[in-house]
Structures are given as structure tokens and as C-alpha cells.
Amino acid sequence: MTKPTLYLIPSFLDENALQALPAYLLDAVKACSVFFVENERSARRYLRSLWKEMIIDDYEWVTIHKAEEEVRSLFRQKLKEGRTIGLISEAGCPGVADPGQLLTETAHAAGAIVRPLVGPSAILLALMASGMNGQQFRFCGYLPVDGAARAKTLRELENDSQQRNCTQIFIETPYRNNQLLETILQTCRPSTRLCIAANLTGPGELIHTRTIGDWKETFPDLHKQPVIFCLHAH
Questions:
Q1: How far apart (Å, rounded) are the C-alpha atoms in residues 39 and 88?
Q2: Using one digit for the tens of pLDDT, what is the confidence trace for 23-61?
Q3: Relative to the CA of 40, which of 63, 115, 154, 212 has its CA 20 to 30 Å away?
Q4: How far apart are the C-alpha atoms of 80 and 66, rounded to whole Å?
Q5: 86 near 7, Cβ under 8 Å?
Q6: pLDDT at 122
Q7: Which distant-in-sequence residues (6+ apart) come within 8 Å of 56 by Cβ?
Q8: pLDDT over threshold 70, residue 88
Q9: Is 69 helix (H, G, I), strand (E, B) or coil?
Q10: Which residues pair with 228 in a beta bridge?
Q11: What is 20-53 written as a DSSP string?
């Protein structure tokens, strides 16, 4: 029996920026017979944009949600059958601030071949473009929603950044970006640097690194835009 294989297939960050995806992804897509995806409808549309001749109904589709045990059980069964599986999250790279790590862990436990494929990761693109320390960095995910807890966390991240010379990377739900930025400007020291990386790879891409003091002079409207924040304190 063919050894089961899991391809970790990156997706676009902006649907108008397919050029950011390497051509060799198509070879992996064609090798798969079943796809575990975060959103079936958008995954189908995405793969058809890569491969217009793809006959969607020739493939099995499983929505992973949060990789409930039912999904993991089905995933194990496909691995036992020796299938080649594609894993696709909604944006960027599966398993990196996106669903997928639990199924990848399951694949390793089953002795399957795991093949990560190159594609755009908003976290790494923002770090690359920030001009901040790329040797020491930490992705913190979402900060607390509560205002007091959020400010406390920001002060802790700022202090940790200064002590460890570490770049702190975090995100927010797009409709709360402006509120987060306001809290950052109110909480962090004027000399601390903040990189705002919005709409990465897309036509409206914006990437600027400035001190908190300088950002207070120019407050960008980030409402409903995908943004990565990078913070570095001296």
C-alpha cells in the first residue's frame, strides 16, 4: 500500500494576489484525493483558481472546524487507506496561526509523510518587512479584549521586548484594529517601535514602521483590514 501523505497547502492572503503562490502547489493538489479544509466553499474556489480544469466532485471534502474528534477519526481512516491528503486553511499556511496542527500531529502519530509547502505567511512577511529583530521574535496571537487586561498585556510585551531584544507579533479581529491601535498608542512608550502591516501581498498593501510617538501624529484607519502588528522596544 502507498504510504499516506499529508500536503500542507498554503492559501492566498489576498484573492487578488495569486502571484504570491508558487506554481509547484498545483503538483501537490493534483496528487491529492481528499482535502481537509477550514472552509469548503472558499477552498473549492481557491483550487479552481489554481487549476481551472479541476473537476471538484472527483475529490472528497471534509471541513475541519476545530478538528473535533470525529474529524480526526475520519482523518486517521483516510491515512489507513494510504490516501494523499491536502490540508488547506483560510489564509496563509496551515498550522501557523491557522487550523491544522492537530491533524498534522495525527499524521505524524500514524507514520504518514508530512510535506509542508512554501506559501505566504502574514506573520513572516510582516516580520521580514518590519526592520525589527528577526533572530528573536514571538507570535502572541490575539491580545485580551478587555481594555485593562489588554493594556497590562501590552506593557508586559513591551518590557519583555526590551529585556530580550525580542520582536512581539500579534493580531486582532479586523473590526477591532482601530481600538487596539488606540490602546497601543496610549500604553506604550514613545520610543517603542511599532510596525503596522496591512493587506499583505494585496493591491492595498501598507507596511510602515514608526515609533509610538510618530504614530500618534498619524493614525491610520485599519477598520476591517487584515493587519499584523509588530512591536519592538529598545
A1: 8
A2: 999 999 999 999 999 999 999 999 999 999 999 999 999
A3: 115
A4: 22
A5: yes
A6: 95
A7: 44, 47, 48
A8: yes
A9: helix
A10: 171, 197
A11: GS-TTHHHHHHH-SEEEES-HHHHHHHHHHH-TT
What are the phi and psi torsion angles at 134 (to 5°)?
Answer: -95, 0
Q: Which region, left, alpha or beta, applies to residue 206 given φ > 0 means left and ψ of -120 to 50 means alpha? A: beta
Whole-model pTM? 0.92
Q: What is d(CA 166, CA 134) in angstroms, rounded to the nearest whole number?
A: 8
Which residues share a beta bridge with 137? Answer: 167
Residue 85 one-letter amino acid: I
Strands 84-88 vs 34-37: parallel, antiparallel or unpaired: parallel
Q: Which whole-number Å values give the CA distances from 212 to 130, 149, 164, 173, in the listed order?
A: 14, 20, 19, 21
Nearest residue to 138 via CA among 233, 39, 18:
233
Q: If you average pLDDT over every residue of the chain, what do you get? A: 95
Is the pLDDT reported for residue 68 higher than 90?
no
Burial of 55 (0-12, 13-18, 19+ CB in 10 A): exposed
CB burial of residue 197 (10 Å; 0-12, 13-18, 19+): buried
